[in-house]
Amino acid sequence: MEDNNRVLEGKVVRVFFTYTVPVILGLVAVSSAGIIDGIFLGHYVGTDGLTVVSICAPILPFIVAFDILLSTGGEVFCGKYIGEGKFKKASQIFSMVSYLIWSINLIMMILGLTFVDELATFLGADQRIHAKVVDYLSVIIMCIPFLSSFGLSYFARVDGLPKRSSLSLIMTGVLNVILDYIFIGVLDWGVEGAAWGTSLSYLSIPILLMPHFFSKKGHLKYVLPNKHTWSVLKDIVYNGSSELLSEVSGGLLFYLTNITMMKYYGTNGVAAYSVIGYLLYFNIMVCYGLSDGVKSIISINYGAELFRRVAKMGRLAIANVLVLGLVLVSLVVWHSDSLVLVFLKKSNTEVIALAQELVMMVWPALLFIGVNLILSSYFTAVHSPRPSLIISLSRSLVLPIIFIIILTKFFKGEGVIYALILSEAITLLIGLFLLQKQGRLKALAT
User: Where does the pLDDT of residue 136 fall: very low under 50, low under 70, confident under 90, or very high at 90 and above?
Assistant: First the structure.
């Protein structure tokens, strides 16, 4: 309760960093799980390991998509009700979302294991690596309940536990490093070991967070939702739809990218682009952590009608992602060779050369990604899901697909990188227009 009072009454800068820094650290730890997989696979298994994980990557957003959809929409409503002092309603929303996520996870796990061979073929696995792709997918699908526990961190954070929420995510990253070393480096389980390491590391989230919701300390409890709660479900889905589409479209875009790189460069292209993928993934997760953390406190302040604080928090978020973008651009421009060698053996000369070329091309996108994610989360937090949805669809599905189709005809494989840059730049213009249309641009700019 004291934490929520600080959100409403504390100094904005202090509240901002109290909530965002732990989330960023947590999501960096989570993102490190995938990155550590890439490092171990690149050095212990080789380029085939990177190719397998890249081929399977499009399915992962689909696994967590409904978790993020319901948790994001539910978190905003819980934050609003907590800000209004309606704690029972907040608990009913939290419980309904949790029960739905558990049910969806079970259905996805059964269907995924039943059609895992067909899924591997659909994702583009050729005969040479098909068995490895099936091995990796089987473990991931079997562990869907662990991977989809991520949403608990949303509700723990909005219920006044930003540090414990982030600790659970940090522990995920730490465990993944340890398990990857054991399963890949020591036991030599290859890509299957990477899947087990990633999946089991997510157990830290429910272990650390679920006891809170059974205690008397917080506002959110597991209860039976009433009829009114279920009637709000459509609004929760609508409010979280931008995040759902961002995840799903991210998977579709990764699939299209893999197919395109395979067409122009073969398996070397998929392996080389995986390095780009890890770089972008790190950038997105840091920015997403910042936007996710600020979304919680914006939604609470918005519910309490403290609109000046809402605008100031939005400005702080945008300023911070711009600084982050500049730092990452500097690293890419001056140390691209070192970044590539983190994931690839020096003996993979062809893949290294291609990866360095692609890394040096992608840097402009790093300046736009963070701002677009902040704008999308800002609109979600102030209960304007339509602009958030437009931004998410523009940057992660509609514009990239259009530009990939057009630009690859002229620039072949390099067209994928140009498509990414143009999509983020145009999405930023769209986001600024939507802010202006709602009369929020001036508030964020001053």
Answer: very high
Q: Is the Cβ–Cβ distance between 218 and 189 less than 8 Å?
A: no
Domain containing 160 equals: 2-445
Q: In terms of Cα–Cα distance, which of 194, 75, 95 is closest to 143?
A: 194
Query: pLDDT tier at 418 (50, 70, 90 boundaries)?
Result: very high
What global pTM score does this model have?
A: 0.75
Helices (H), 202-266: 204-209, 227-231, 233-265
pLDDT at residue 396 in the model: 82
The tokens of 109 are what? 């796990």
Specify the long-range contacts of residues 206-210, CB closer than 8 Å, at least 24 apart: 206/146, 206/149, 206/152, 207/168, 208/164, 208/167, 208/168, 208/171, 209/152, 209/153, 209/156, 209/161, 209/164, 209/165, 209/168, 210/152
Q: Are 101 and 151 in contact (CB under 8 A)?
A: yes
Question: What are the tokens at 443?
Answer: 């508030």
Q: How many structural domains compose the chain?
A: 1
d(CA 353, CA 221): 54
